[in-house]
Write a structure and sequence with these properties.
The protein is α+β, with helices and mostly antiparallel strands. It has one domain: Ribosomal Protein S5, domain 2. About 40% of the residues lie in helices and about 20% in strands. It contains three helices and four strands.
Length: about 120
């Protein structure tokens, strides 16, 4: 029996500008109130994640970092449920620190939309 590992290693991240541009250019978009998720099918054995948060949406660096940390943590804990795609999560709209739980719920809903869309 294979034990699941809940790590988030370098190979699971989008690191280079070209990787981000490929996803942002030709990926399917799934929009929510606070977030936008883009997914691109690539020949990889696992899912990869990239996060884009502009200063316009969250002006304070500590809020951007906290939001990224929560998104990465959600990805790390649920990575075995995701299809092997490249994902880019973008923040669409400003939100208050108290709404961070709403951001994670919306992220979960967007990943479910991706899964439903790719099944058909």
């Amino acid at each position: 029996m294979c034990e699941l590992r809940y790590t988030f290693v370098r190979a699971q991240r989008l690191l280079v500008t070209q990787q981000f541009q490929a996803v942002l250019k030709s990926a399917r978009r799934f929009k929510g109130r606070l977030l936008q998720l883009q997914a691109l099918n690539v020949n990889m054995p696992h899912a990869r994640l990239g996060i884009v948060i502009g200063k316009k949406q969250l002006s304070r660096a500590n809020r951007r970092n906290t939001t990224k940390r929560h998104i990465r943590e959600y990805f790390r804990l649920h990575q075995h449920d995701f299809l092997p795609l490249d994902y880019v999560v973008r923040v669409n709209q400003r939100f208050l620190p108290e709404e961070l739980a709403d951001v994670v719920r919306e992220l979960e809903r967007l990943f479910q939309q991706v899964k439903r869309c790719n099944k058909s």
